[in-house]
Structures are given as structure tokens and as C-alpha cells.
């Protein structure tokens, strides 16, 4: 409910940006070397000496004018409903937000980040309170730590930080908004890495430490390679259990904490080195469990998300990754063997064909998306602190890679805020924003709390930061550049280099004021060498126009200046940058794309202030068309076409050579898998850490494709990589031609089987039927279903448009096809399995109290048919229940006992097959493969790739290697 209350003129984020641009000539500060510069500097003489603190000048704010007074504020209502039964699960009315913030951002911030009990006077009700709680805490800590030269500098810092958050130029990660300025522990980090030794005490400590991290809503990763293998002996003489066995206990613990937590699943990463003797068991772990899920589901067990039987499946709470070395990858390239080594002695236990082992990794990932891969030597080649210890693991999303028992706090910049109307990139204000953000992140370590003492000690000693960005995909599209193009990759490399170069230059300036990180002295030579590698990488970037050339030139200057300062003063931070998935905070910043990802699709839903939503074409599209030179009339025609079709193919006026500009992660024109890998490779040399991103490949991708992608990731210098094949968790069968060659060599047996052919069972002239009116996403229609006298459904008719229209014709044809198939004996539940969760427009809210949300009209129709014509046992196995049944289940009652019209039906004949006739005997070979295929194809094909949000029920969307909910902001990993 929008009602503007301020008397100042309305100012959008764009006009605020223009205002900031007019202040460029006011930026004047002093560097540590005494030279005048246009960026914030320091006053200092010697490393470690507090020589007065940082001098801060304004870049975005005006002296004497508070940032809050420059924008229009309005009151809104936030009401969120439960997807199961439509009841309200969150409500806060009269919250105060800027007029240019979207309803989606308002809803996410209000429900996730406002502190205090709802309905009490202690509850935050304005964005001002949230920003003040954080910005003032950072300022106070900075003053206490001697970061600022004067009180006036501290005031400017607070004002600038407030302005940047208010105008959605950047956001800290979620733990900052949860905890900073509250009575809770001041945890600011979202990412943690633990360690495990080969002792039972260490393993039990791992369980405990992981649990504490999960309890706080964060994620952790660990490398289990120090645990001796199941092929080695214990000191007592018995056989060791091996790391995979201990993974079971950790997985069960994570599942328990997840189920007892609020809205977020336990996020964890488990890593095992490729030379561990148990690596093959580790590789197959999750693929084997996926087969178990399929078999149990087909046997009638409740294997749905949150189902009572899913707990019997193991290893589902972690992302698994194999850590490979250059030695191993070279062996794969040459086709030689590779040694698996004992953990206790380091001696080879056995040797394996490297290509065969590599293929096992690719095959398992092809089948179930795990394991991912981490490139050990590349990671450690760019390690600033090798004297302290090697990097062995990562956080759950793989972007934070550093020493064991450490943490990283994240923050991300909204790149679209720095795109000027003329298509240029605002280097100066981007530089200033990075300075303010990295300074604030550094200050936060001074007052932060940590889940364990070891993590606290290492984080304070090495001060790892993770600045990153969001909205790269939108920036490239708005600039008229294809994501998968040399020009797009050049812009990405230049911006990433500038961001990290400014961050480390700023870190060196801070080191001149308060000293370098504690572990710097013993790692100084290695740290400086890595900084020189970053600087040298700038020279390898090819530029294509003034935009990327200008940004890259600025980046090169920043690396040069920063390295000069660092050679004298050291650096305050051992790590500066990563590229995180940025799920929730991207929604908070109203970003169209997350992290380094391209746009997901050209059409999305926009939430409205008064409730509901509307389908819109991404605003980036219009800006891109303008940049490409199309007239207003042409732009409108193209946008209208996209709104109707969801893609640009054959759009009026649009030149075909401009199609690639609008390629997305999904849809008719999707970016090639290698396009994702090459974009990661362009940014990787300019990041301290790694990149959270999953390379999506089509369902038709082969195991060989996975091998090629993982191999190219190594060749192109990535640190980590994960690949996801569409529907790979929905039970797609492994084709013999795509499986390991050994599978084709398995012995087969010949056995006679009987082929049956169905006979059509027609409906009588007079048959019972029912008609249901429905509305899905605003589109109305009618569903008529007719039954046999014994209640088996045998006919379906759909009406959604005027007779003679294309839609009406397609609906008639679809109805006839379904009806004939039902009469030939295709069970209704098979249609329900295939068509539920099929996604296309119209979609969204329905007027059916038992089916609150539908992914499409087809999704709704078959959910409704399932509720009307399938027995409870079959529906429950498919995850389809009435509102009353779900309520009973939530209350701990038996939902099968809920009284409904079902009790009046004879379920024995429901969805019965037609009579069948034995036709001929045939010979069937290779029964082993056939049996496997039967198990796989019988799985839950209705399930979507992305999970449903445990909080609001909205289908989550990919965000890096995690998932994020656009409805409430919940994430499955870092944020």
C-alpha cells in the first residue's frame, strides 16, 4: 500500500547516480606517499604505525544533507502467505522504504533482516533503522580501532556507507544484517572452512563445529583426506572405517539441524583428494543414493522433499568435490596411470588408470551433479599465505578457498549502478565504492564473533575478505554485448581486475595506518609474488572498445600503485575478493542477475505493492535495444514479442546478429556450456578466491561433455567447477552409448519375455463427469473429466479460449490425445508424474484452495485430476495432497484419515488400465541394463530441478552453485 510521505521531490536511483556523477570534481584526498590523487588516501609513514588514520572525502553525499533526506519514503504492507494452505505466515504493515525500492526487495528485507519480535515496539519497521544499526556500528568500531584520522572523517564514512546501501549500490552478506548492532553475537561471516585430522577426537570436533556453524545459518567446508582409508590398518590392527563412513554421521547431523532450524538447509562441502584410496567410493556415493531414491519412490515410499522416508537416504546435505592435482590431470592428458597413496605413510597402495578415474568423476556428475571438481595446484599457486599452510578445502559454494579453520565475510557491488547512460562504465565512482566497502569489511573483523576459537584466531590473524559483484549479466546485456563473446569477457575481466586491484591498494593503505595482518611477515614474499601475478595478468587481457580499455587501464594503475604501497607497508588482508552466488542480497539490491551469472530468462515476474504480481520483460532488454540503435517503435514491438513468446527468435525488426546479446542461461537461446567456462576463466586471474557458479548443460549432454568441461576448466586456470545437467536428478536413464565402456562389456543373458499390446476401452454413451472452473496466473478456463461407471477416468476436455483460436485448437488436440491414451490404459498417475511441475506461462497463483500455486496450466490440470481421481496413497507418493491433508500432516495427524469426497469413491478401479492382449513372444537381451533403465525411468519425473523453498514454497532459482528464493530471500548456501 504505497503512500508517499516526504515532501522532497521523488528521486530514483538513476537520478541519484547522476547527482553523484556531478560531484566528481569535489573528490580530493592524500595518499601515503604525499601525492595528490582523486581517490581516498591515508596519512602514514611506517608499516604498523598508527599515523593518524584514514582521511575520508565525499563521493556520493553532500555535506550538511543526510542521505535519507534526498529520497522519497513511503509506507508499505508486507504480507506473506503459506503456500500449503494460503494462511498468513508473515505480516508486518506500515514498513517504511524508499519509493524506488521494489516490493520484492521490501518483502525480503522486512521478513529476513528486520530484528525484534513482530508486533512489538522493539521490532524494526523502517529501512532507516536497519541501515543505521549496521552503519553506525561499523563507524564506532572504526573509530575505536583508529581507522579514521578524525571524527569528521568517521562522519563522512558513515554517511557514504549509508548512501551506498540506501541506493542499492552494494550489500553486505546476510549475517551482517542478521547480527550487527543487535544483542546477538556479532557474526559477520557467511563462509567457513574447517579441518579434520586422523583421530576420533578430531572427527567428533568436526561434527560439533559444523553443527554450531549450521545453527547460526552459515555453511562450512572440509577436506577429509587426512583420514586414513578403509584399505589401511588401525594401530590396534583392525581395518579403518574410511572417510566415507564418517560422512554418514556428519550428514545425519546436518539433516537434524536443518530440520530443527528456521528456513534454511544445512550448507556444507566435503572434499576428498584424488589420490585418496577411497576416492572411487567417494565419487560414487551420491549417485548410488540417487538410485536408492528412485527405487524407494517406485516402491511407494514417501521420498518427496520433507517426506518421512527421505531420511533413509544418506549424503544429501552436502556438495561433494574431488580435489585434483596437475600431476593427475597430466596423467589424464597422457593416458597414463596414477597412484592412490596411503594416508599414514604416503606410499602408493595401488595404481589406477587416470582416464578411467577421471571418467568416473564425469559419469557420477552426469548422473547426479556430484562431485564437482577443485584444481589443487591452481588454487595454491595463487595462495598468498603458503608458509602458514596449504589450501585444502572451500566453503559450500566453492568461492572461498583459504587456510583451514578460517572464515570470510562477503559483500557484493551492484554493477548496473555504475553503467552510465552513454554506455561507459563509471570507473571513478566504482573505485570510490570499492574503497568504502572494503574498509567497512575490514573494520568488521575487529568486532566480529566467531563460532569456534580456532576460526576466530585465524580470521583475526589473516583477515580474509570477499568483496564481489552482482548483475554482470545485466550489465553486459544493457551494454549490447553478448555474455558469450570476447567483448563480454573483456569487460568482465577489466571490472574484476579493477575491483580487486582497488581492494588490495586500499588494504595496503589501511596497513599503513593500523599494520598488516599478523601472518603477513612470514608470508611477505609469497604475498607480493601473487600480487605481481595479478598485475601481470592485466597485460594479457585483450580489449575491444573504449569501455573495456578504459576500465583495464584504471585497473593496471591500481595494481601498480597498490603493489608499490604493499611493498612498503604490507597488506591488511590476506584475501580481498571472491565471486559469491549473491542470492538474497541480489534481490535486496533489485539486481536482475546474480553474481557472475547471465540473465536467467528475458521475462520475469514483478511483485506489486498491493499484492500479486505481473509478468514483465526485463528492463535490461529495452536498454540493450536502445544501446543497439533501435527506435522507440521498434523497441516496443520487440519487447511485446518477447513478452508473448519469451525469446527473441523471429522478433520484428531485430537483426539476427543481435540475437546473442539476449542469450540467457535458460530458454530457446541458451548460452553454451563452454561460454560459462570461458567467462569464469576471464575473471579468475583477478580474484583472490574462486567463483561460485554452476555450468548448466542440456539434458542431452553426454559424459564426454562433462569430461571436456572439467578438463577445460583445468586448462583455463579455474580454481573450482561444478556442472549440472538438466533433469539429472529426475531419473533420466544412462544410455549405454554414454556410459563407461566397461558397462558395455558386462555379461548379458538372453531370456524370453512377453510383449503385451493394449486394447482400447471406450466410454459408454452416458457417463458420469464433473466440470471445474479454474484460474492460473489470471488465465481462466474449464476442466471437464468423464469417468467409466466404475470411476476410472477416461476422458478429459479443456477450454481456455474462444472457439477457432490457436489456443483452443491446441487444447482440443491435447484433450483428445490424453483421452485416447487413458482409454488405452495409460495410468493417470503416469501423466501426473510427467506433467506436474512443467513450467510455462501462464503460471502463478490459482483460485483453487487445494492447489495454491501452479507452474503452468498443465501443472494445475494434472494436480487437480490427481486430487479428484487418485487414491491418497498414490497422491501422497507424488507429493499431492489437499489443504486439509497438509494441515493434518503439519499437526502430526495421519493425513490419510482426513475425510473428503474420496471416501465415496471406489479406488480399486481408479485410473485402471484397459484390457490387454498377449500378442507375441520376443527375445530381450541385456536384462541388466533394462532393469536399471526401469528403475531410473520410474523415478519422479514430475520433480523440478530446483527445490521448493522450505519457507514460502516458491520454486527456487539457481544462484551460483546454490539456490535462492525470489519470494522470501531464503538461500541454500552463502548469501
Automatic annotation (TrEMBL):
TSCPD domain residues: 767-868
Keywords, sorted A to Z: Cobalamin, Cobalt, Disulfide bond, DNA synthesis, Nucleotide-binding, Oxidoreductase
Cofactor(s) it depends on: adenosylcob(III)alamin
GO molecular function, one term: nucleotide binding
Catalytic activity: a 2'-deoxyribonucleoside 5'-diphosphate + [thioredoxin]-disulfide + H2O = a ribonucleoside 5'-diphosphate + [thioredoxin]-dithiol
Transmembrane segment boundaries: none
GO term, biological process aspect, one: DNA biosynthetic process
Region called Disordered, residue ranges: 1-54
EC class: oxidoreductase
Domain Ribonucleotide reductase large subunit C-terminal: from-to ranges: 189-724
UniProt xrefs under CDD domains: RNR_II_dimer (cd02888)
Gene source species: Natronoglycomyces albus
Bias-annotated ranges (Basic residues): 20-29
Domain of life from the UniProt record: Bacteria
NCBIfam families with a match to the protein in the record: NrdJ_Z (TIGR02504), PRK06556.1 (NF005122)
Chain's role: Catalyzes the reduction of ribonucleotides to deoxyribonucleotides. May function to provide a pool of deoxyribonucleotide precursors for DNA repair during oxygen limitation and/or for immediate growth after restoration of oxygen.
Family classification: Belongs to the ribonucleoside diphosphate reductase class-2 family.
Ribonucleotide reductase class II vitamin B12-dependent N-terminal domain span: 78-168
EC number assigned by the record: 1.17.4.1
This protein's name: Vitamin B12-dependent ribonucleotide reductase
Amino acid at each position: 500500500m504505497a503512500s508517499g510521505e516526504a515532501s522532497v521531490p521523488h528521486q530514483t536511483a538513476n537520478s541519484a547516480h547522476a547527482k553523484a556523477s556531478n560531484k566528481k570534481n569535489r573528490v580530493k584526498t592524500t595518499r601515503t606517499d604525499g601525492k595528490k590523487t582523486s581517490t581516498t588516501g591515508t596519512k602514514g609513514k611506517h608499516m604498523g604505525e598508527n599515523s593518524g588514520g584514514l582521511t575520508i572525502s565525499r563521493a556520493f553525499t553532500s555535506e550538511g544533507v543526510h542521505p535519507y533526506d534526498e529520497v522519497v519514503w513511503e509506507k508499505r504492507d508486507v504480507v506473506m502467505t503459506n503456500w500449503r494452505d494460503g494462511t498468513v505466515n508473515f505480516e508486518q504493515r506500515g514498513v517504511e522504504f524508499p519509493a524506488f525500492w521494489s516490493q520484492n526487495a521490501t518483502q525480503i528485507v522486512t521478513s529476513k533482516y528486520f530484528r525484534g519480535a513482530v508486533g512489538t515496539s522493539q521490532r524494526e519497521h523502517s529501512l532507516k533503522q536497519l541501515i543505521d544499526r549496521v552503519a553506525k556500528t561499523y563507524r564506532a568500531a572504526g573509530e575505536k580501532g583508529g581507522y579514521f584520522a578524525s571524527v569528521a572523517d568517521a562522519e563522512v564514512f558513515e554517511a557514504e556507507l549509508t548512501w551506498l546501501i540506501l541506493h542499492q549500490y552494494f550489500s553486505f552478506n546476510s549475517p551482517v544484517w542478521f547480527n550487527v548492532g543487535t544483542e546477538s553475537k556479532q557474526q559477520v561471516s557467511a563462509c567457513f572452512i574447517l579441518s579434520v585430522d586422523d583421530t576420533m577426537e578430531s572427527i567428533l570436533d568436526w561434527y560439533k563445529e559444523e553443527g554450531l556453524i549450521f545453527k547460526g545459518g552459515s555453511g562450512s567446508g572440509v577436506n577429509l583426506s587426512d583420514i586414513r582409508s578403509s584399505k589401511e590398518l588401525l594401530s590396534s590392527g583392525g581395518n579403518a572405517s574410511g572417510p566415507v563412513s564418517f560422512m554418514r554421521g556428519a550428514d545425519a547431523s546436518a539433516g537434524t539441524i536443518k530440520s530443527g532450524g528456521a528456513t534454511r538447509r544445512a550448507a556444507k562441502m566435503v572434499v576428498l583428494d584424488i589420490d585418496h584410496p577411497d576416492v572411487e567410493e567417494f565419487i560414487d556415493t551420491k549417485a548410488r543414493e540417487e538410485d536408492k531414491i528412485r527405487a524407494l519412490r517406485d516402491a511407494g515410499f514417501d521420498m518427496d522433499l520433507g517426506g518421512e522416508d527421505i531420511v533413509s537416504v544418506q549424503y544429501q546435505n552436502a556438495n561433494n568435490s574431488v580435489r585434483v592435482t596437475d600431476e593427475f590431470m597430466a596423467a589424464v592428458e597422457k593416458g597414463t596411470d596414477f597412484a592412490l597413496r596411503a594416508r599414514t605413510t604416503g606410499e602408493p597402495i595401488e595404481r589406477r588408470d587416470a582416464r578411467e578415474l577421471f571418467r568416473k568423476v564425469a559419469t557420477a556428475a552426469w548422473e547426479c551433479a556430484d562431485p564437482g571438481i577443485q584444481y589443487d595446484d591452481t588454487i595454491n599457486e595463487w595462495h598468498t599465505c603458503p608458509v602458514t599452510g596449504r589450501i585444502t578445502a572451500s566453503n559450500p559454494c566453492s568461492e572461498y578457498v583459504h587456510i583451514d579453520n578460517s572464515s570470510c565475510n562477503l559483500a557484493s557491488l551492484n554493477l548496473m549502478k555504475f553503467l552510465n547512460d552513454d554506455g561507459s562504465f563509471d570507473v571513478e565512482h566504482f573505485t570510490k565504492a570499492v574503497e568504502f566497502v572494503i574498509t567497512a569489511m575490514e573494520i568488521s573483523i575487529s568486532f566480529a564473533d566467531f563460532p569456534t576459537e580456532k576460526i576466530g584466531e585465524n580470521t583475526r590473524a589473516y583477515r580474509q575478505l570477499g568483496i564481489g559483484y552482482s548483475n554482470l549479466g545485466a550489465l553486459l546485456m544493457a551494454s549490447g554485448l553478448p555474455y558469450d563473446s570476447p567483448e563480454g569477457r573483456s569487460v568482465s575481466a577489466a571490472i574484476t581486475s579493477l575491483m580487486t586491484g582497488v581492494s588490495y591498494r586500499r588494504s595496503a593503505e589501511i596497513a599503513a595506518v593500523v599494520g598488516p595482518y599478523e601472518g603477513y611477515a612470514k608470508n611477505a614474499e609469497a604475498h607480493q609474488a601473487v600480487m605481481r601475478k595479478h598485475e601481470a595478468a592485466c597485460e594479457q587481457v585483450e580489449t575491444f572498445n573504449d569501455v573495456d580499455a578504459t576500465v583495464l587501464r584504471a585497473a593496471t594503475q591500481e595494481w601498480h600503485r597498490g603493489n608499490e604501497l604493499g611493498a612498503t607497508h604490507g597488506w591488511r588482508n590476506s584475501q580481498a575478493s571472491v565471486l559469491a552466488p549473491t542470492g538474497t542480497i541480489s534481490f535486496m539490491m533489485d539486481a536482475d542477475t546474480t553474481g557472475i551469472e547471465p540473465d536467467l530468462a528475458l521475462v520475469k515476474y514483478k511483485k506489486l505493492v498491493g499484492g500479486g504480481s505481473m509478468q514483465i520483460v526485463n528492463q535490461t532488454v529495452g536498454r540493450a535495444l536502445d544501446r543497439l540503435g533501435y527506435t522507440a517503435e521498434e523497441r516496443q514491438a520487440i519487447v511485446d514479442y518477447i513478452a508473448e513468446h519469451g525469446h527473441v527468435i523471429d522478433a520484428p525488426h531485430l537483426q539476427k546478429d543481435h540475437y546473442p546479446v539476449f542469450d540467457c542461461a535458460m530458454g530457446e537461446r541458451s548460452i553454451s556450456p563452454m561460454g560459462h567456462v570461458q567467462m569464469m576463466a576471464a575473471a579468475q586471474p583477478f580474484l583472490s578466491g574462486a567463483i561460485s557458479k554452476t555450468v548448466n548443460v542440456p539434458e542431452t549432454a553426454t559424459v564426454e561433455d562433462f569430461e571436456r568441461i572439467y578438463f577445460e576448466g583445468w586448462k583455463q586456470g579455474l580454481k573450482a567447477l561444478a556442472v549440472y545437467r538438466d533433469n539429472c536428478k529426475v531419473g533420466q536413464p544412462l544410455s549405454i552409448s554414454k556410459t563407461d565402456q566397461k558397462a558395455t562389456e558386462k555379461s548379458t543373458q538372453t531370456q524370453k519375455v512377453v510383449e503385451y499390446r493394449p486394447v482400447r476401452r471406450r466410454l459408454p454413451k452416458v457417463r458420469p463427469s464433473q466440470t471445474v472452473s479454474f484460474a492460473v496466473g489470471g488465465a481462466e478456463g474449464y476442466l471437464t473429466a468423464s469417468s467409466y461407471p466404475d470411476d476410472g477416468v477416461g476422458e478429459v476436455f479443456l477450454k481456455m479460449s474462444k472457439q477457432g483460436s490457436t489456443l483452443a485448437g491446441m487444447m482440443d488436440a491435447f484433450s483428445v490425445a490424453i483421452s485416447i491414451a487413458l482409454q488405452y490404459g495409460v495410468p493417470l498417475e503416469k501423466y501426473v508424474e510427467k506433467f506436474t511441475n512443467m513450467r510455462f506461462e501462464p503460471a502463478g497463483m490459482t483460485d483453487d484452495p487445494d492447489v495454491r500455486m501452479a507452474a503452468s496450466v498443465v501443472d494445475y490440470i494434472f494436480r487437480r485430476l490427481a486430487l479428484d481421481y487418485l487414491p491418497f496413497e498414490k497422491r501422497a507418493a507424488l507429493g499431492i495432497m489437499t489443504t486439509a491433508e497438509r494441515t493434518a500432516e503439519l499437526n502430526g495427524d495421519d493425513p490419510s484419515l482426513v475425510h473428503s469426497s474420496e471416501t465415496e469413491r471406489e479406488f480399486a478401479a481408479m485410473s485402471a488400465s484397459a484390457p490387454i492382449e498377449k500378442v507375441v513372444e520376443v527375445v530381450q537381451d541385456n536384462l541388466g541394463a533394462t532393469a536399471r533403465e526401469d528403475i531410473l525411468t520410474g523415478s519422479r519425473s514430475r520433480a523440478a530441478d530446483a527445490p521448493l523453498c522450505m519457507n514460502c514454497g516458491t520454486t527456487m532459482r539457481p544462484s551460483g552453485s546454490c539456490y535462492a528464493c525470489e519470494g522470501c530471500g531464503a538461500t541454500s548456501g552463502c548469501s
